[in-house]
Write a structure and sequence with these properties.
19% strand; alpha/beta; six-stranded mixed beta sheet; globular; 13 helices; 780 residues
Length: 780
């Protein structure tokens, strides 16, 4: 008996900005690989087809993904009508809400397909003597684990499960000797952990960095249950080309252009229709500084997708070696009374802190900032979140705070005062220090010669933050108002519907009472005859139920007549914030006017000691030492997280400009502004010498900014590649980021706030299950 094992189809996966015949380029590639694989499956004519999860790339796939899967299963059903299809849900196609079955619920309606989306499911084919246990991602993630029991009466026992074999304490035990075949989903590379424990791998390269997998084949497995032999069937995909680094010279594009042209000419099969990466080494910030624009345009025209990355003379930066210091860290959530609350061990890795609204997520970042040494703004609440190392006398934990809203201000502060990157919690020798990390805004460093002039930048930043808070508050009020109006309209509609239904039923009851057996049946139209009393009783019961429900909706409508106290309080708080904005804006304008008069009287600008102007133009960014190297690193990161849509960053006077793949420049805004901030903060971290790098905790809040969800997959892929073991990355982002890429996070915590202002943390399901494969199965 032969079975076929496919996994990680990732239908609906999208990457890179290019399109082909109206489809995203990579989405079309994945769908094409699926069709090709199914043609090979039809040729093999297996007894069973196993699909081990991540059939879709996200729990809310586009209609094109549904169409691709439906057509593919239609091909199998038409050519192999007697072959059952068994499927389980993976990380990507399992919604966060346990009550939501997710997109795999679609398969239950297709004859010949058996699917498990949330709970384990046993399927028996008695005529064939086959028993299959389907264990989806959600069931294998946390205790209590499902019992993996085969059917002793079955001739063949199949186990479909998600996970990665490992020796973690929370691993789900799997005994291969009890099963005829264990089909594992999750790893994107084909692997085996014994003669009958196999991972088929993905059928394409569903990631934002396909060059790391350029030499690895993708495909699916067939397995002969009698001979216990597996065969890998490669599936052709779009070719991926990673060119060798090309040395370039700043100001002279001819040598680099010649070297790159020679490299392209020696590429087997050329680059037409391929996914190409070009690495440039030299003192350049954007590719146009080292390569002729004509060749760059030609590469982009011929390749399906081309990505250019610039590196300094030191070579290609890769994974940061070794953790400087490993330490456990605790997120402390104090209770209302001393000694109460909750502490969550974060450990190392990528940890998500999330909340349902943007206002709550902003509060999380503000409270972490306030708890870490930054003075809270006037009127701000006391922080109730703290991050500290455990034990406190080991190592140090520092933030690179992503809180500066001005990228240019961040660069000026950093390059003028490189020491502004943090203060240790505790030194390595255990000497005394604060028990929390200090969050530092590098742009705030420097001493001022004029008090009001020195206060001006701080007040401007405070006003920007205050305006953002006021906008958030107004947005929250607007959302709650819309919800109140919607609920009231719904109550009106429901109440009216129940009233009309009650009148209709009362009318029908009267007709039955008056006409008796002569009243026609509402279904067939014939006289009711002897069934008239029963019909009257049924109508009477229904009428009473409708009246009862109608009374509930009437009370509900009366409750919604006025705004709730919580909504009224939110409106008042929003008005107070707007009043504060007006007051602060008026105060700031008064200070600017006084500075303007003094400046005109002195005939010159008032300047800070650091050389910045408190009123008047800043010196050009190009004058800052070390800027080019920092922008080169940030530009490479920017190109990676935007999947090649942007190619670099240029300093123009006092502003930073983004450069796209065609060499055009513009001021960043929206998603591009978010991408710029992510790139700069990561580049600042990487720019420090490894032995002196003080930052081993990154607080990344930008994933919750405009476009952050769009940038999340590539950003987290990059952070995973750059962050060594033992480091902690805290991301504050919407729950949708977790739902889209749950396997990226080692821990996810949802934070809710009680009316009394107390945080309540709740762990969310995330990560990839661990499987403890019994030693009886030799590792191959």
């Amino acid at each position: 008996m032969r079975i076929v094992h496919l996994s990680d189809l990732h239908l609906g996966f999208r990457a890179f900005p290019q399109t082909e015949q109206g489809w995203n380029l990579r989405e079309r590639d994945v769908a094409r690989a699926f069709r090709w694989a199914l043609q090979e499956v039809v040729r093999l004519r297996p007894a069973f087809v196993l699909l081990t999860g991540d059939l879709f790339d996200r729990p809310d796939p586009p209609s094109t993904a549904y169409l691709a899967l439906h057509r593919g299963i239609g091909v199998l059903r038409s050519h192999l009508p007697a072959t059952p299809i068994l499927a389980i849900a993976g990380e990507r196609d399992s919604p966060l809400n346990p009550a939501d079955p997710g997109p795999l619920a679609l398969l239950d309606s297709i004859p010949g397909v058996e699917a498990a989306a949330a709970a384990p499911r046993a399927v028996r084919f008695r005529e064939a003597g086959v028993h299959a246990l389907l264990v989806p991602h959600r069931a294998a993630l946390d205790r209590p684990f499902p019992a993996l029991r085969p059917d002793p009466e079955a001739r063949v026992n199949l186990l479909l499960i998600r996970g990665v074999p490992g020796d973690r304490e929370d691993a789900l035990p799997v005994d291969p000797s009890e099963w005829s075949y264990v089909a594992v989903g999750g790893p994107h590379r084909s692997a085996n952990w014994g003669p009958n424990v196999r991972a088929a791998g993905a059928i394409e390269r569903p990631g934002t960095n396909p060059w790391n997998e350029a030499t690895e084949e993708r495909g699916f497995l067939s397995f002969d249950l009698d001979s216990r032999r597996a065969e890998f069937h490669p599936v052709p995909g779009r070719p991926v080309v990673d060119l060798a680094p090309v040395r370039v010279a700043l100001g002279d594009t001819e040598p680099g252009t010649r070297r790159l042209r020679e490299l392209l000419e020696g590429t087997p099969g050329g680059i037409d229709g391929k996914i190409v990466r070009v690495r440039l080494r030299g003192d350049i910030v954007v590719p146009e500084e080292g390569i002729g624009q004509g060749l760059l345009l030609a590469i982009r025209e011929r390749a399906a997708h081309a990505e250019f990355q610039s590196y300094g003379e030191a070579g290609v930066e890769g994974r940061i070696p070794g953790p400087m210091i490993e330490t456990e860290r605790i997120l402390s959530v104090p209770g209302r009374e001393a000694g109460t609350g909750r502490e969550i061990h974060l450990g190392a890795g990528l940890v998500l802190l999330t909340a349902s609204t943007e206002a709550l997520r902003r509060r999380i970042t503000r409270e972490l900032s306030a708890a870490s040494g930054t003075p809270p703004r006037e009127g701000a609440a006391e922080p109730s979140l703290r991050l500290r190392p455990d034990p406190p006398d080991r190592g140090r934990a520092r933030f690179l705070w992503a809180g500066d809203d001005s990228p240019t201000g961040l660069l000026r502060g950093l390059l003028d005062d490189p020491a502004a990157l943090g203060t240790p919690i505790a030194s390595a020798d255990g000497s005394s220090a604060p028990d929390v990390a200090e969050v530092v805004d590098p742009a705030s460093k420097g001493t001022e010669t004029a008090l009001e002039a020195g206060d001006l930048p701080r007040m401007e930043r405070a006003l920007v933050e205050l305006r953002a808070d006021a906008l958030e508050a107004a947005g929250e009020v607007e959302l709650q108002l819309l919800e109140w109006v919607r609920n009231r309209q719904e109550a009106d509609s429901r109440l009216q519907a129940y009233r009309e239904r009650a009148r209709e039923l009362r009318s029908r009851i009267r007709l039955v009472e008056e006409r008796g057996s002569e009243e026609p049946c509402p279904t067939c139209g014939r006289p009711l005859g002897k069934h008239a009393p029963r019909m009257e009783s049924v109508l009477q019961d229904e009428w009473e139920g409708v009246v009862q429900d109608g009374k509930w909706w009437k009370r509900r409508r009366l409750q919604l007549e006025e705004k709730s106290e919580a909504l009224q309080e939110m409106e008042e708080a929003s008005l107070r914030l707007h009043a504060r904005v007006e007051d602060e804006a008026e105060r700031l304008e008064g200070i600017r006017e006084r500075i303007r008069h003094r400046t005109e009287g002195a005939g010159k600008d008032i300047r800070e000691e650091g050389g910045h102007t408190a009123h008047g133009p800043y010196p050009p960014l190009e004058s800052l030492p070390g800027l080019r190297g920092l922008l080169r690193n940030a530009g490479r990161i920017l190109g990676t997280i935007t999947e090649g849509r942007l190619s670099g960053i240029r300093a123009r006077g006092s502003e930073l400009m983004l450069v796209d793949i065609d060499g055009r420049e513009w001021m960043p805004e929206g998603v591009d502004q978010t991408a710029l901030r992510i790139a700069l903060h990561l580049a600042i971290w990487l720019d420090q010498p490894v032995e002196e790098r003080p930052v081993d905790v990154i607080l990344l809040r930008e994933l919750g900014e405009p476009g952050g969800e769009e940038l999340a997959p590539a950003t987290l892929d990059l952070i995973g590649a750059l962050t060594p073991p033992g480091r902690l990355v805290l991301a504050v982002a919407p729950p949708t980021v977790l739902e889209r890429i749950p396997e990226r996070f080692s821990l996810a915590i949802e934070m809710t706030l009680t009316p009394s202002g107390r945080w309540i943390p709740r762990r969310l399901p995330t990560g990839v299950p661990a499987l403890a494969v019994a030693p009886a199965a030799p590792i191959g």
